[in-house]
Design a protein that fits this description.
The chain has 621 residues and is of the alpha+beta class. It has helices spanning 3-22, 27-82, 231-235, 334-338, 354-372, 378-392, 394-409, 411-420, 426-440, 448-464, 504-523, 526-529, 533-547, 553-576, 579-591, 598-620; strands at 95-99, 103-108, 113-123, 129-134, 138-146, 149-152, 159-160, 169-177, 180-187, 194-202, 216-225, 239-244, 249-253, 257-261, 265-271, 275-285, 287-294, 303-313, 320-331, 487-495, 499-503. α6 (378-392) crosses α14 (553-576), α11 runs antiparallel to α13 and α11 runs parallel beside α14 (553-576).
Length: 621
Amino acid sequence: MDKNSVTGMILIAAILGVFFWMNKPSEEEIAAQKIRQDSIAQVKALEAEKIVALELKKEKQEQAEAAAVNDTVYQKKMADKYGLFADVVKGESKLFTLENNLVKIKFTNKGAKVYSVELKDFTNFKDEPLILFDGDDNVFGFNFTHNLRNLNTNNLFFQVDESASNDSTLRFKLSLGDNEFLAFDYTLPVNSYMLDYNIVRNNVEELITSGSGAGFELDWKTNLIAQEKGRKFESQYSGAVYKYDQDVVEEIAGKSDEEEFRTPVKWLAFKDQFFSSVLVAKNNFSAGSINTHIYPEEENSPFIATNTAKLTIQNDGAAKSVQSFQFYFGPNQYKTLKQYEGLELQEIINLGWWMFGAINKYAIIPIFNWLEGGIASYGLIILILTLILKLVLFPLTYKSYMSTAKMRVLKPQIDAINEKIPSDKAMERQQATMALYRKAGVSPLGGCLPMLLQMPILFAMFRFFPVSIELRHESFLWATDLSSYDSIIDLPWNIPFYGDHVSLFCLLMSITNIVYTKMNQEMTQSSAQMPGMKGMMYMMPVMFLVFFNNYAAGLSYYYFVSTLITILQTILIRRFVDEDAILAKLTANQKKPKKKSGFQARLEDMQKQQQLQQQKKKKKK
C-alpha cells in the first residue's frame, strides 16, 4: 500500500470519528429513549399477562366444570353406597381431651372413641409418661347395617355437640335427620379412673340395624405397650380377663390363646402386669370371643401383647334408648379396684388358687396396707411383714424342730435295729423301727406336717409380690425396682433359662437355702439312710437360682429374709432345747405299756401278710 492510500484511509477514519462524535445523543436523549423502551416492554408484559390470565381462567372453568360433573357422580356413588352416612364417612380427624387429677384421656371424632390414655401418677421403666395406648393402637367400633351396607362407627366422623359438652363431659353426635341422631356420651368424674360411656339412639331404629338378630357386634382391639424393665416377666401377667355375670372370672395370661363365650359377661379387661383397660356393660354382653397374642421377647416389639375382642350387645329395637357402659383405665391395685363395688374388678389381679388367694386377700394384703400407712420404705415393710408371718408360724416351726430332735436322739437305737436285722429283711427292719417309734411316742410325719401347713403361705407370697403395684419403681438397697429383677452384673451374653444378668437378692436367697438344707441334713437321719438324697436336696437351691433370677426382687428378698429368720430360729431353738431330756422322756415312754390303735394293728397285719407271701414265693422257687 502506497503513501497516498494510507493517508486517505486515515482521513476517512478521522472524518467518520468527527461525524459520530458530533451526532452522539445527549444524556437527556438517552434517558428519554430508555423510558420509551421500558414503556414498550411494560405494554408487551401486560399483554402477555392478559393472555396467560385468559388461558388460566379458561382452564379453571374447564376444571370446575369437570369437577362438578365428577363431584355429582361421586356424591351419587357415596349416597348409593352409604345412604344418610355419605357425609360422615369422610372428614378431618380432631382430638378432644377430658382429664382429672388421675388420668388424661384424648378422644378422636373419627369413631367417637378413646384415642389415648395417660396415667398421671405413673411412668414407664424409662421414666417417661405412662401411656396405656395411643392412636391406632386402639380400635373400637360397633358394626351395624344401613341400606344393606355393613358399616362400623370406627370409620365415621362425628361432630362434638357443644351444647351437651363441658369440662367433664363430651358428646359426639351423628345427626341423620330431623330429631334422628346417634350420640356417644363420655363423662369423667373427679378423682376416678372410671370413665362413664353411654350410647344414645334417637329415632334411628330403622336407619341403624344390627347385622343379626343377636344384637350389635362390638370390635375392640388394643396393642398393650411394654411398660416394665423385665419384659419376659411382664408377659407372664399380660393378657385378658373377663367375668361371667353372677359367676367366675376367667383369664388368658402369659400365652397366645382365644376363648369364646355364649353366656352373659359383665366385663372384659385387657391387662398387662400392673395396668388394665376394662370395659364394663351395665346390661352385660350377651356373647363374644377374645383373642390374645403375646409377642415373643426375641421380636423386640414395642408391644407386650395384642388383645382382640368381638362382643355382642343386645338390640332392644326401641325408638329411644340409652345403653350404659364404663371404662376403667388404671392400675391393677387391689384397694383401688375393690372400691368399685359390685363389679369385683379386684379379680383382675390373680392372687392364686382359692386357698392362696384367700390368704392374700384376708391376711397378707390387709397387713401390707396397714404397714404402708406408717412406713415409707417398702424394703422395711417386707422385712416387718416377714417377721410377723414368722412369729405367727413359730409354733409350727418349733413343733417341726422338736419332731426332728426326737428322731435324732432315737438314731442310735435305730442304728442298733439295722445292725441286728440284715438288710435283706427290709420288712422286719421297718416293723421294728415303727414299733420303736410307737413305744417312744414319736410320729415319723411329725416334722413334715408343720412344714406342709406353712406351704400355703409360701405359695401365697409367690403370687402376691409379682402383682403388687405398690412395689413398682420402689428402690431398696441396690435394687432400683422391687417389682423387677435387681441386676448387679450385666452379662455380655444370655445364659439359657438364667438370663443376661445376676440378681443379688436371688443369689442371697439361694445361698441361705443351701445353708438351711445343710443344717436340716445334719439334724436328720434321712441322709444316713438314703445318701443319694443329699445331692437331690441341694438341687432345689440351684433351681431357685435359675428360676428366680428374672423374678421380682421383692419376692427374692422376702424368701431370703424368711429363710434367714428360719435359720436363726433353728439355732436359737437348738441352743435352748435339752436333747438329753428329750431322750430321757422317750426312754420312759418306751417302758410304758402301749395299746395299739386300730390303724396300727391293721398296718402290722398287712405287713405280716406281705411277709408270709414273700416267704411262700421263696419256697416255691
